[in-house]
Input
Amino acid sequence: MGKSARLTATRAAGLFFIALGCAAACGSSDGDDAGGSGSVWAPTTVPFDPTCKGCEELGTVTLSHLGEAKLMVDRNVDDPEAQWTRCVNDILDCVEETKDESACVAKSGCPKACKADYEARLSALGQSDLSARWSALRAVFVSPTSRCAPAGKGPEVVP
Output
């Protein structure tokens, strides 16, 4: 990513809506890839390690009724979920600075197919206002039926 991870109000709101979509997508793999077939993500070369041996601790948070939790990341993992996370973070970093969702999708590190799906979805909406741009983002990058959303194998959380 190259930038330090900071949680601003814009990023928090974006992550909240994305998390809602991911929660709906987890466990959903119905074969509908919304406009294309096959994976848009590169093949995995470094899979997720549930033991988190290569992880770096980003910090801790206190969760109501649960106590303190560590936030860990392994930046070498490149499974589709990690690729999706980098793709969405590219967009969020850019939107935070420029407030131009469409330009941010275009210059992100997301797969070309996802960028094309976003443009097609925005065009189909017939509008380009903020509501339409966020609707297109959700449809392409969060909807459980989109080929650009996480595969739905469930969260990679280790207690």
